[in-house]
Amino acid sequence: MIIDLPSTTTSKVNQKLVELRERGGAVALGRVLTLVIVTEDGASIEDTIDAANEASREHPSRIIVAARGLREAAPRIDAQIRVGGDAGASEVLVLRLYGPLAGEAESAVVPLLLPDAPIVTWWPGAAPAEPATDPLGRIAQRRITDAAAEQEPIAALRQRVTSYTDGDTDLAWTRLTHWRAQLVAALDLPPHEPVTAATVTGDGDSPSTELLAGWLAYYLRVPVRREQSDGPGIVSVSLERPSGQVALHRPDGKVGTLSQHGQPDRTIDLHRRSLSDVLVEELRRLDPDEVYERALRGVSLLPHNQEGART
After folding, report:
1. CATH of the domain at 277
2. 62-88 pLDDT, tens per residue?
3. For residue 216, which phi and psi values (nearest 5 degrees)?
4. Do 243 and 160 belong to one domain?
5. pTM of the predicted structure, to 2 decimals
6. Is the CB of residue 134 less than 8 Å from the CB of residue 119?
7. What is the full DSSP assignment across 74-105?
8. Please, what is the Cα angle at 183 between 292 and 203, to 5 degrees?
9. What is the pLDDT of residues 104-138, one digit of tens each?
10. Which domain holds residue 265?
């Protein structure tokens, strides 16, 4: 069910939600969090909502989309309430904000937050330079950005290094989960030798490649070389040990091959993860991600003349 409320107010949106609940229970209780999505009004909104709806099947939520429209327009809120089959396991409130309201989204969002529920703010596109100081970032326990969606992904990631605050995370980091798991598992196998150097190869504008190199640099404390390729995204990682390389190579963005001395080559599923998949993973935790913070610190350890790459 989709209900349009043109030229409305947040008070009227709340009244309609109460009416729906009393009339037929269309809006269920038991939401575990409020997911606030901050974006520009445009075609990509539906893709973002679809991903959030998929994620809500594991994390039932109230989803509030603050879609900022023309700043030059008269002040207006065009709202839409989606429940039932159009909202996954959530209720979705789409607020299209025009005029001065486009720059003051928190005034429209705050009255619609679920009481006593954690708040996660997600910027699927361009994000503030310092998410934790943004009005909609300050109210959230977790703040999700996506450096890969920025116009200059590597510059955006390096900004995250300087602006990191507990509760920040980035989907460029979440996309690395399978890569990190495979590399850790490989190093757990004999021979148990120290890594002496590492090379990470990937697309030239991939923040995930940069973060993977930073993670290795921080935890291994060895020189990490960044090499560029045409991708897609991360193409390979090689870890040097006295007996030979541990190499994980994924040339097509789908299937990887793990090679290491004394072990047969293994084929591994390393497909590029969907937006809903990485969002589901991030919504599983509300505590600070200390490993992500350390990977960001590792990015600052990389040689400045090396550029990063995209998973």
Report:
1. 3.30.360.10
2. 999 999 999 989 999 999 999 877 666
3. -65, -40
4. no
5. 0.92
6. no
7. PSEEEEEEE-GGGSTTSEEEEEEEEGGGGG-H
8. 70
9. 999 999 999 999 999 999 999 999 999 999 999 99
10. 177-299
